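Collaborator request, handled under Task 6.
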Amino acid sequence: MSVEPQRFGSAREWLEQGRLATYPLAFRTAGAQGVLVSEAWRTGGVLSYPALNDLVLIVGRPCAKSRTDPGRRHAAIDVAPEAVHLLVQGSPGTIRFGSSRVIRALVLPHAAVRSALAEAGREAADFGWLQDGPFHDPFLLGVVERLWEAGGEGSPEHGLFADSAAPMLVARLLQLAAQAPPQARGGLSPSQLRRVREYCEANLAADLTLGDLAAIADLSPYHFARAFRRTIGRSPHVWLTELRMQRARELMTVRPPMPLIDVALCVGYSSQTAFGAAFRRVVGAAPGEWRRQQEP
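Structure tokens returned to the collaborator:
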């Protein structure tokens, strides 16, 4: 699996030229601000996305066909049926599609987001827990569906609706982010999850154990592992590896360049070989290859 090239001028360029473009169905755009909705059929697997200037909402809708990839492991985020995944501006990452599905991507251009934030009295956006994985919101799903349908009608009202949708969507995202995240039945509470994340982020160079994380949440290792999977949708080990690789990518873009063995040590790997294998598994490319793709 090759990593997604990291240099795109806009989210539209990524959709038109990136890996998702190998499954094209249609593009629809409208409004003076250039709001775009794309639709593509995508097989199961991992999709890497680069740091983008625009705000993107991904909606995964199951389709009749399904394909599994036996023997392959992906440390990424599952896009649940009829769920929304937020691709935050300036942050690369990966999405895992558990099965074949139709993917709709709603692109809010950087200028439209900035204007919407100004209307809301905000200088910058903080989408909080919405960035942690797929979430459900009927309002957002309905707006994406309406924009897609209106884009095929060719009516003059579509442009007006598209222009009004940008501030409406940004306001809704800010509203959701200000609320407490929904707690999965039998899962971790928001405060438990926050404590675990903060502890892990502060100790990525350490040899963190399941017992360490369970103690932070005041649970037994057995109950913590079950509650964590119910909340996040994947095991603590997979999640922690993703967190380590996210920090590794940040360290690999600093100047002057940090030796890869030092990057490995900073994120908890005493062996550069083990670090390289984990990085390739999560990101889709060897560390050196990924770093070269960041060069201007």
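The cover message to the collaborator said: "The CA atoms of residues 74 and 282 lie 6 Å apart. The chain has two domains: 11-178, 193-293. Please let us know whether this matches your experimental observations."
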